[in-house]
Amino acid sequence: MKLLLSAAFVALATAPALADEIRIAHIHDSTGALEAYAEQSQIGLMMGIEYATEGTMQIEGNDIVVTEYDSQLRPDLGRALLAQAFGDDDAAIAVGPTSSGVALAMLPVAEEYERILLVEPAVADSITGSDWNRYIFRTGRNSSQDAISNAIALGQEGVVIATLAQDYAFGRDGVAAFREALEGTPAQLVHEEYVPTDTTDFTAAAERIFNALQEHEGDRRLFVIWAGGGNPMGRIQAMDPSRFGIQMATGGNILPAMAAYRDFPGMEGATYYYYEIPQNPVNQWFVEQHMERYGTPPDFFTAGGMAAGIAVVEALRATGGSTDTEELIAAMEGMRFETPKGEMWFRPEDHQAMQSMYHFRIRVEDDVDWAIPDLVREITPDMMDIPIRNQ
């Protein structure tokens, strides 16, 4: 049966919630460099709620009303909007944001109002680590899951690695987790390079990386951790790192960004999602419906948004429609739920969703606009020792 989203369920009003409404706030950075991520997240969230409610957009007869807020990549604004959502707009649960910096600013607000913030897709480890509180859950993968899966993919005998990352929580947490994960492999991390988030000229950083890698014999890799624009891989590749025996490496990304990966056939890494990889009924519905509605396959953050939407519905279903925070926490700790990636569950200790990642190898086809990350192997949760960083 074809299920269609209804604009009637997306509200922007600030009137108090009616007794038969469950208000969900979606705070995302729909203005700025992560706009594409935010748009995907919103589409996925609504599709997830739709799928999990079988199109009714209701729990126990109560309408689920999703309110959108634009945090504009500003931590101060994200904090203020979450306070508005909980304090003035009577949201029972909030989902978001896109940026790790914005998310970190929002965490204390959830604790202050004693309401659930379901983080999706912000990645920094500290969100469910050092800055965590018991009102925070996360369906999105964290930096450790990114890092450990990429370390499994790249950490082979004789490999020497340098990293390039953005100089803020996402980049630094990502490299820290990657460094820690590599310690359990035969590979060596020999240099770390951090640049501002809006960098477009990578010449100086690349020269430092090239010089550092040339000091070591072995299979030289430059592993890039990046979000948003700037195209560091393409710009550095234009400097011909192969003359120094250096190959590029990175994790997965959204399909428009994967177009740049066409210059790197055979490149390996690990990814959170690619629409052709998971084989399960949720993903089958998801891909079919997204293709029918939007004419494109679902992307990286659409899948994450859908996982969040499903998690919200399953949590509310477990409480019989109650939005009492303590009941929600009790229901969500250890809760297992099906997503486009297969089963996820919230680890009770830090509320991080445990989930599979995917080791890929890039293949290029003339009639596909982006590089195709062929599955090498599924990296299941039991293969990744994800640290509990809030203790």
Automatic annotation (TrEMBL):
InterPro entries: BCAA_transport, Leu-bd, Peripla_BP_I. Residues 21-363 form the Leucine-binding protein domain. Keywords: Amino-acid transport, Signal, Transport. GO terms for biological process: amino acid transport. Pfam families: Peripla_BP_6. Transmembrane segments: none annotated. Residues 1-19 form the signal peptide. Belongs to the leucine-binding protein family. This is ABC transporter permease. It comes from Pararhodobacter marinus.
